[in-house]
Amino acid sequence: MAKSVNIQIASVHLTSRFWQTFVAIMGVTFGVSMYIFMNSFMNGVNKTQDDLAFSALSHIRIYNQDNNHSYNPIESQYDNSQTVFNIHNRKSIQYTSGINNSSKIVSMVEKQGEIVAVARQVNYSVFFRSGSKKINGIVSGIELEPEDKLFKSSEMVTQGNWNNLQTHKSGIIIGKLLSEDLGLQINSSINVLTSDGVSKNYIIVGIFESSLKDIDKTKAYLNITAARQLIGENSDYASDILINIKDRDNTSPVVKKLGLLVPYQIESWQEANEQLVAGASLRNIIAIAVSFTILLVAGFGIYNIMNMTINEKIKEIAILKATGFSGKDIKSIFLSQAGAIGLLGGFLGVVLGYLISLLINQVPFNVASLETLPIYFRVQDFVLAIVFGVLTTLIAGYLPSRKAAKVDPVTIIRG
What we know:
By secondary structure, this protein is an alpha+beta fold. It contains 16 helices and twelve strands. Helix 2 runs antiparallel to helix 12 (274-312), helix 2 (18-53) packs across helix 14 (327-360) and helix 14 (327-360) packs antiparallel against helix 15 (379-405). The chain starts with a helix and ends with a helix.
């Protein structure tokens, strides 16, 4: 009974000062809506950047780095620290880079449950030549199906066909900007010159366009067999083994697991692209900071309104206490008001934030592969927005309610 009476009194306070209540609710609504919008926009930006990056970036990369190793035969024979020796003209041995037993490594990797796609590549720097024009770039020798599963590369081919690399042994697919710079088109001949001086002509069987200009300007695809033949490597050679996993944000356990199985260097996308991770984290921090600042300002507004309400109704509070209401009851009345403001403002803010985000998502933004400003919704953002809105109002209402609970009815009534 006491609880229902407290709620009735709280509702009377809220409705009797309609504009004050309205302003408080609008403060929470605005704060929550900005939280929804800022986080949805930042999520959209991060997702777009990830999609652009991962169109050419695998989650994990296995490679054999070309390291120089120094061998000291005396150190292996005399391990006594008191032995003094000096070697002149020590030579460094350069070991072969690349992976010569790639099939075995791929078979081992594919057995791991976290793996969703594995592809071998043969990458090396070349010069693309056509007439007097010469452009420095990269050739990637690829296996068509694994590569397409990894990056959906076939969807980037705007002229010709991705599968032409399988049927045309001397075929090559080049970037759109590279074809424009060299003045070439489908069925044109292009010369590829390696750093070792090996030169060969290929027929352009496809032209691709990605969302990254640097790739479109400098990259070409060959069938992996043709790429191996061009540089004189064996039929099982690969310079890189690229891996995609189920959860790209959780690469560390997979890297550690593969490190026990594979005798080569293993690198996650986070290690190779620290600036990408740092940028996404920084944007999230900024979005959360702005959103919390707005909610904090709304909280101060609610605190002031609750304080004014208590000062205006100080005699009513004294009468309530004189008629048997405890300090706990008084506190409950004002916290109920704050909670109602938080809940109503939170739900209205979620709706408003969703509508604002949809509106922003229609704004034209023709950059890279984008057509409009990116927005990406997550359920947890909506839940957290309501939770933070209610918590902010409860905290803002707690201090005035504690003040009201300490009112001495005798002093107020006499005064």
